[in-house]
Structures are given as structure tokens and as C-alpha cells.
Amino acid sequence: MGEGDEESGFIRLEFAEAPADEMLQRARSFYENMDRRRTTRHFSGKEVPREMIELAIRTASTAPSGAHLQPWTFVAISDPGLKARIREAAESEERRFYEERIPDAWAEVLEPLGTDHVKEHITDAPWVVVLFRQSQRERGNGEMAPTYYSQESCGMAAGLFVAAVHNMGLATLTHTPSPMGFLREILGRPEHEHAMLLLPVGYPSDDARVPDLERKGLGDVSQFHE
Ligand code: IYR
Q1: Residue 82 in contact with residue 125, Cβ under 8 Å?
Q2: Do β-strands 144-146 and 72-77 pair in parallel, antiparallel, or remain unpaired?
Q3: Is the CB of 108 under 6 A from ligand 1?
Q4: What are 129-182's pLDDT values in tens digits?
Q5: What is the DSSP string of 129-197?
Q6: How far is the CA of 124 from the centre of ligand 1 (A)?
Q7: Fewer CB atoms inside 10 Å of the end CB: C or N, the chain?
């Protein structure tokens, strides 16, 4: 790599190789920390500083994305009036889902999780973050152009958001109101943005409960060819 590399839009990769034992140690402790993560629906109202939410969004936004278009918008809401409106709209959609639309096979796997149309986490948690996926991007001249792999890109950003929230010692829940078109209207987002996940963020309440679940073992989720 010679002079002029910067001019081509490339810079040198900053990479410091760590000793293998330290790498393994880091890998184990990251895994152990992430394995303690649980999704809960029970949040306390205890305040969370905006900076923590900003850092979770910044972390999420480090995700790889198709053509580096970063096709996501994270809308963070602490305004109680707005959270109440979102909860009301989500519950009315969810009521129809649980009472009328839910297929039997879906009800069967949700039953052990104890979910229902009541979405108190939307008003209990101090912050609600809605992840919008951008199926198109705005070009400077006002025209629209496609984004690429926006589902995959936003999925990765969501994963990093969840990890960041857990790592800082808070809890979140990946809620997918169904359908969730109402979020675009309430939050005033443009047509090319599609609500993908609603994530309440906060401290778990003192009496927070989680289903007694086990994670699949390595052998059940992987296959190696050596
Ligand atoms: N959107 C509904 C139903 C729901 C669906 C799945 I898949 C879950 O893992 C949990 C709930 C709801 O939020 O209640």
C-alpha cells in the first residue's frame, strides 16, 4: 500500500493481535455475559439517562450493512404521552391478533411464554426504541434509490442493540406488534421506513419474571466440517 491510498478512499486497518489465551478468555467472558441475558416483559419506571440510549444506538449502528447504507432509523421515546398512544394502538392490534387472527400452531408455541395483548412494558419502561428499516434511501436530489439486504442489516443492528443494552446492565424486550404500520403514522416516519421492532429499555422491575427456558446446545445449533 503506497502513497495515495487515502486518496482512493481506503485507510489502513487498525488491528492489534492479542495473545491466543487472552482471546479465548475474552471470548469466554463475552459468551458468559451474553448467556445471562434474558428477555423480560417486566420493567421498573426507574429513569435511564438519555446517554445510555444514545450509546446503545451508536453500538447498533456499527453493524455491517448492505453497501454500507446503514438502512435503519432508531426512534427513541421517553415522552409519556407518546408512549401511552403507542401502547393503546399496539394493544388494539394485539387484541385482534390474540382473539381472532392467531393460527393454532402459533398459539401453541406462544402459550408457554405467557404473552397476551396487554403491553404494559410500553408505558412502564422509561424508554421505548422503535427500529425502522429503510427499504429505500433518499438521494441528494430528492430521488429515491434502493437499499440492499435491509432485513439482514437491520437484524444485525438489532442484535448489537440488544447486546449493548444487556452489556450496560439494562434489560430490553424485542416486541413485534402485529401489524405495526401504526408506528410509522404515530412517529411521523416516511413511507420508505418500515417499523421492524419495538424495544422497551429499562431496569427490570423488582418482581420481574421470565419463562423457565433453556437454550439449545452447541450441537443443536451448529455443524462443523474440519
Ligand atoms: N406480536 C405478538 C405475538 C408474539 C409473537 C411472537 I413469535 C413472540 O415471541 C411473542 C409474541 C405479541 O407481541 O404479543
Answers
A1: no
A2: unpaired
A3: no
A4: 999 999 999 998 989 999 999 999 999 999 999 999 999 999 999 999 988 999
A5: EEEEEESEEE-TTS-EEE-SSHHHHHHHHHHHHHHHHHHTT-EE--B--SS-THHHHHHT--TTEEEEE
A6: 18
A7: C
Q: Is the CB of 176 under 6 A from ligand 1?
A: yes
Quick check: CB of 41 below 6 Å from ligand 1? no
State the pLDDT at residue 7. 74
56 CB-side CA count, 13 A: 32
User: Residue 10 — φ and ψ, nearest 5°?
Assistant: -110, 145
Determine the distance separating the centroid of ligand 1 and the alpha carbon of 184, expressed in angstroms: 19
* Per-residue confidence (pLDDT) for residue 140, from 0 to 100: 86
CB atoms inside a 10 Å sphere around CB 56: 28
- Kindly list the structural domains of the chain, giving each domain's residue range(s) and its CATH number in brackets, ordered by start: 49-205 (3.40.109.10)
Residue 71: asked if its preceding bond is cis (omega within 30°), the reply is no
Ligand 1 center–CA 177 separation, angstroms: 7
The band of 3, judged by pLDDT with boundaries at 50, 70 and 90, is very low
Which of 176, 196, 198 most suits a substitution to test ligand 1, by most atoms within 8 Å of the C-beta? Answer: 176
The arithmetic mean of pLDDT across residues 51-77, rounded, is 99
- How far apart are alpha carbons 131 and 199 in whole angstroms? 8
